[in-house]
Amino acid sequence: MxxxxxxxxxxxxxxxxRHVAELVKLELPRKPVLVVSAMGDTTDHLLEAATRALExxxxxxxxxxxxxxxxxxxxxxxxxKIMPLLAELQILLVxxxxxxxxxGRTKDYLVSFGERLAARIVAAYCQSMGMEAKAVDAxxxxxxxxxxxxxxxxxxxxxxxxxxxxxxxxxxGMLPVLTGFIAKDCKGAITTLGRGGSDLSATMIxxxxxxxxxxxxxxxxxxxxxxxxxxxxxxxxxxxxYEEAAELAYFGAQVLHPRAMQPCMRTxxxxxxxxxxxxxxxGTRIVAALEKTRPVLGITSRNQVTLVDIVSTRMLGQAxxxxxxxxxxxxxxISVDMVATSEVSxxxxxxxxxxLEPLKKDLSRxxxxxxxxGKAIVTIIGDVDRSxxxxxxxxxxxxxxxxxxxxxxxxxxxxxxxxxxxxxxxTEVVQGLHKHFIGANFSEGSTSCI
Length: 450
What we know:
By secondary structure, the protein is of the alpha/beta class. The protein has two domains: 2-218, Acetylglutamate kinase-like (Carbamate kinase, 3-Layer(aba) Sandwich); 296-438, VC0802-like. Helix content is 38%, strand content 22%. The chain has 13 helices and 17 strands. The chain has helices at residues 14-26, 42-56, 62-75, 83-99, 104-128, 158-171, 197-208, 242-250, 262-267, 321-331, 357-363, 387-401, 426-438; strands spanning 2-6, 32-36, 133-136, 144-145, 175-179, 182-185, 190-192, 213-218, 239-241, 271-275, 284-287, 296-311, 339-341, 345-351, 368-382, 407-410, 416-422. The strands form three sheets. Strands 3-5-2-1-8-10-11-9 form an eight-stranded mixed β-sheet, sandwiched between helices. Strands 13-14-12-15-17-16 form a six-stranded antiparallel β-sheet. Strand 13 (339-341) and strand 14 form a beta hairpin. Helix 4 (83-99) packs antiparallel against helix 5 (104-128).
């Protein structure tokens, strides 16, 4: 069996759903399970409807209803079983407007309608094409989560309950069309799986059911060597390891969230990122291990980063200093990205969204603290065995551009080298590094940095 997951842009309207169904039909001999996200921007529209109900008491689902009914008309299918769902959604919004409250639990219940509507429409169209398709809500497919609403995690029992629920359908020749992104907790409340949740749904099915592979269909040709908005000549990478893909995703390549790969990393199930708008493109295959033939795989960047320099002579030879330091970060719920230390200083980075003044006040008891905003993390994903060569040449590029490097971190994963520059310089640095390492003289089988 295989798992095929399609995101919202791949299901934006009737035409896109028709194309998805044709792709699935080609794979029927491989016993696919289909995982779907909400159509287009449905999740955003649901949240907007809830905000209106909460703030103004206005209840309206006309836009959401019209989007789905238009798709049904475009597909020329009999009305699937979506009217009870739309009626249930209407009642929920009325409740929000009366109670004037939108909790995490209610929000998860609300946004679940997007995936549930999409699954029913996609299944109905697949049936009209002669496929034995069935819409399956995630909890009917064995997905059980904790009760951390809006960012739930699947519980270990899901590893057994998912194949227990899905394999009889698959073995019976059925095409399950499963709702991604959602689950139910042990009390029966609907939850959502947070960032990368739909992809996680697909990889969890693939891993738990021992599938041949998980296909994650996006609107890009795969994982690229750089952001094409910054580097127009960026190209898809044929294959990467889970570790490389996770580093690329964490430091800016927003194709696949790192947590979505965790189930397949555990079972070494291949993941294939493909483009539903360009199905002939080979895409990127993510596997457990690869022979290192490329010195540099890709260049990523993330802007709006804050750099905090902490200097204290108390660090010198003092056990527990770093523990005390990071306890203050934990106290304010601040997640750190990069860390660099010396005998008397620590430099760390984090997203610019945090209010750091309370933290600075606490840290000032034990150190001198300087907060520097407007920074960017530039990351090179490459071969650890050639890190000295890569660093030498990367700094040469920065010198040639006249751009100083303000902090360096060689990640513990040993596949990434990250450094800090000013926000305003990140585009120029990424373009320069990409041209140097992955320019015209680069090929998949390259054994030289140049």
